[in-house]
Each structure stands twice: as C-alpha cells, then as structure tokens.
C-alpha cells in the first residue's frame, strides 16, 4: 500500500473541495476501499473521510417516501422493524449482504458504489483488465473463467458483474439519489446512476469528480409493501449472488395492477426487467405466469462458457420471489 494523504472534513463544502483534487477518493465505511488499497488495485493519493458529516446519517420511514442518509449503516437500516413492514425488499437485500461485521461498518452510499468482484479486476497479476487498465483488454474474454461474470449488459471490452444487493431493490422501485458537488446539488434517478461498460468500463457512474452522494429516496408504492428479495448463492451467508431478484406486486383482487422486477448477480449494472414486469400487468399471478416472467427477464442474456447456468437459475429465482410477493400481497404470508 502506497502512502496517501488523509483528510477528515467537518462540513460538506470542505469535503467536496478535498474530493475534487486529482487522485483523491472518498472514504466512508471503507469496506471496499481498504480492501482494494491492500491488494494494489486502488492507489489513491488522498482519502477524504466523510464520516464526520453527521447530516448524512439517519433515515426516515415516511408514508409517501423513505429517505436514507448516505452514511446510514447497513445493519441499522436492515434491522429496522418499521422498514421491514413498509418495504421488506429493502431490509432483506441488506441483511442478506456481507457479514454482520461488514454490515455494521458499511454505509448505504458506499454500498451502492461498490466495485465488482471480478477476479481479473481484483488481481493485479492480470494486466488485461479494461476496468483497471483502460485499453489493456479483458482477461475474462480472452480465455479466462467466466462463471462469475455478467450475462446481461456486458460488452466486448468488459463482462464484469455488478455485485450489490441493495441496488437491485432501489432500481426496481424508482429510487433517486441526491448528491452535492462542485456544480451544486442534483437529484439522479437511480436507474441512471450506473453506466454500461461499452468501450469505457473504467467509467462506472455518472458522478463527477468531487461529487458526493448525500442521500437516497424511495417512493412508497403499493408494490413496495408486498415485496421480496430472493438471493441464490454458493453458501448461505457472506457470499455474493449467483442470481437474485428484487420484486414487488400490487394486486387488485386476482389481477396484477403493478409489478416490479430487478435482477442481480447477472448483469453489468443494477438491472430492471421491465419486459418481465409488463408481462404480468393486467393478468393473474400464477406459478405459470411467474415462471414466464422469469424466462422473459433473461430473454436477452448472452452467456459465456461457464455462465449458462445463470439463465435457468435466474429465471427460477424471479419466479420464486414473485410467488412470495404474491403471498404477501394477498395475505398469505
């Protein structure tokens, strides 16, 4: 690990000023940053520790919207009883992520910006990584192991998978992210925050240098209360998703009034399956229609050798999550 400067500003303006400098990176929980610094993937010239900015802490479960400060801790939010009732998909996606120790350290703002777990990105012995070394190539596409890589949203330059859980719930339910930066404050639809790799996989979000995520807002909808996050993984705890689904249903009797579906563990960015949602609206939710929605969610998948299993697994996860959400929507759970 190389030497670096350390800043701990006490107000947002000072944090923005420090973070806009070349080579500076923002530090919150540090659960990703410190790991990547230890293995030499990131070598920032300065760290800007924002954990003293108390105005970015806390959260509120309102009747029309749920708001989170960027520094709210994953564990605190995931264990909130009011939130478990109002939006189970949010709490489930948090407590199914990482270990208890990491959840107590990690902050929501950092969680949504976490880096890929692609082994070729995280191992500097591989020179070919367009995300780490733009223009160097992609070791995964050049004969490497691809069972952990994206089958949706990848490109000829990168097939790294976005690893987060909470982000799938946010993209499914039209969340927004608030930020402050050198250009002032702005509100960004969460669906627009992350960008597909294309020819520039090293550019992962639309955030500008020095721009700091300050909060997250989720509008309350009928489908949010009858929601569920289902995660399939190699082991029961502390493992990233092989496939996951964040879903919600709003029912009018036996008819689906609104459906929300996002899928994780399979895509380059948080991925909303709108065609699958549309296939359910206006009709009944049955095991057959749930399975069809799962198939539709993966209709455009482009698997690599070793990742074909994600298509069937992912479709089954979507169907299973929908059946649980249906039980919640109709009083069966």
Automatic annotation (TrEMBL):
Pfam families documented for this protein: CO_deh_flav_C, FAD_binding_5
Keyword Flavoprotein: yes
Keywords linked to the UniProt accession: FAD, Flavoprotein
Listed InterPro entries: CO_DH_flav_C, CO_DH_flav_C_dom_sf, Diverse_Substr_Oxidored, FAD-bd_PCMH, FAD-bd_PCMH-like_sf, FAD-bd_PCMH_sub1, FAD-bd_PCMH_sub2, Mopterin_DH_FAD-bd
Ranges where the FAD-binding PCMH-type domain occurs: 1-223
SMART domains in alphabetical order: CO_deh_flav_C
Keyword Flavoprotein: yes
UniProt-recorded name of the protein: Xanthine dehydrogenase family protein subunit M
Organism: Pseudosulfitobacter koreensis
Lineage summary: Bacteria, Pseudomonadati, Pseudomonadota, Alphaproteobacteria, Rhodobacterales
């Amino acid at each position: 690990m190389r030497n670096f400067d350390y800043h701990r500003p006490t107000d947002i303006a000072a944090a923005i000023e420090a973070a806009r400098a070349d080579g500076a990176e923002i530090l919150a929980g540090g659960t990703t940053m410190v790991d990547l610094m230890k293995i030499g993937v990131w070598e920032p010239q300065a760290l800007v520790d924002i954990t003293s900015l108390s105005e970015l802490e806390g959260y509120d479960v309102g009747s029309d919207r749920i708001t989170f400060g960027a520094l709210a801790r994953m564990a605190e939010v995931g264990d909130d009883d009011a939130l478990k009732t109002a939006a189970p998909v949010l709490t489930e996606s948090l407590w199914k992520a990482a270990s208890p120790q990491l959840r107590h350290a990690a902050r929501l703002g950092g969680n949504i910006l976490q880096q890929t777990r692609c082994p070729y990105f995280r191992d500097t012995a591989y020179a070919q990584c367009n995300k780490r070394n733009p223009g160097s190539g992609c070791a995964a596409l050049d004969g490497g192991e691809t069972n952990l890589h994206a089958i949706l949203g990848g490109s000829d330059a990168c097939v790294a998978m976005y690893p987060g859980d909470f982000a799938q719930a946010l993209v499914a339910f039209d969340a927004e992210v608030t930020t402050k930066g050198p250009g002032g404050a702005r509100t960004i639809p969460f669906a627009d925050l992350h960008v597909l790799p294309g020819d520039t996989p090293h550019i992962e979000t639309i955030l500008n240098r020095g721009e700091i995520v300050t909060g997250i807002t989720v509008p309350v909808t009928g489908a949010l209360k009858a929601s569920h996050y289902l995660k399939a993984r190699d082991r029961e705890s502390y493992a990233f998703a092989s496939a996951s689904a964040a879903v919600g249903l709003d029912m009018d009797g036996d008819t689906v009034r609104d459906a929300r579906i996002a899928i994780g563990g399979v895509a380059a960015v948080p991925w909303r399956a709108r065609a699958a949602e549309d296939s359910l609206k206006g009709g009944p939710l049955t095991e057959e229609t749930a399975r069809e929605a799962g198939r539709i969610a993966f209709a455009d998948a482009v698997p690599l050798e070793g990742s074909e299993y994600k298509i069937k697994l992912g479709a089954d996860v979507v169907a299973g999550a929908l059946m649980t959400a249906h039980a919640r929507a109709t009083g069966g759970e």
